[in-house]
Amino acid sequence: MNDGAVLAIAQVGNQIVLGGSFTSVTPRGGSPIARRHLVAFDAVTGAINTAFSPEPSRQVRTLLAGPDGTVFVGGDCTSLDGEPAAHIARLRLVDGQPVPGFTATNNNGRVNDLELLGGHLVAGGAFSSVGGQPHAGFASFDVTKRPGDRRHRLARHRSVRFRGVLSAASRCDGLISRTG
Questions:
Q1: Long-range contacts formed by 9-14: CB under 8 A, 24+ apart
Q2: pLDDT at 109
């Protein structure tokens, strides 16, 4: 990293994905390469994945390996490559493009952590509503919908009063613990 900080790391197959507040990286023995808040590289060789170059509008706070060579991205970003992103996106590592059919319902604040649990992407962060419904820093999205489906369903959770979620972790009994 030439500037900023790495705030999140995920491994997707043989690729390492870094997210944070940086705007450029320099590979060993190479010249600086512009990478705004996201970069992927080969876990063995360290070669930067030049096909993966999405541009979130603001810093990435959390990454989560997804199925089929994808990565879930969460953070402060409200757009990705100029398109609305609602603080959450699912990207293909092969080309950095959003996964067709994945549309996280709009939320009104940053995402600090992501977990997959039983076909749901659980998001914790500093938001008070998702899709116009109260969700005090904690919500989940159904990611099992097929690409032809119009929207991913927002799972309903009892609203709780607190200032935000810093971390969400799945447990072996299928429950989610949250810290915040």
A1: 9/63, 10/63, 10/64, 10/65, 10/71, 11/43, 11/65, 12/40, 12/65, 12/66, 12/69, 12/70, 12/71, 12/93, 13/69, 13/93, 14/42, 14/43, 14/44
A2: 86
User: Mean pLDDT, the chain, as a whole number?
Assistant: 80
Q: Of 36, 123, 33, 27, nearest to 77 (Cα)?
A: 36
Tell me the residue type at 49. N
C-alpha separations of 22 from 69, 122, 140 in Å: 23, 26, 28
pLDDT tens digits along 131-178: 777 777 888 877 765 443 333 344 444 433 334 444 444 444 444 444
Determine how β-strand 33-34 pairs with β-strand 154-155: unpaired
Per the structure block, which two tokens stand in for 26?
């320099």
- Sequence ranges of the domains in the chain: 56-179
The CATH topology of domain 56-179 is Methylamine Dehydrogenase; Chain H (2.130.10)
> What φ, ψ does residue 35 adopt, rounded to 5°?
-145, 105
First to last CA, the chain: 29
pLDDT attached to residue 106: 63
DSSP state of 147: T
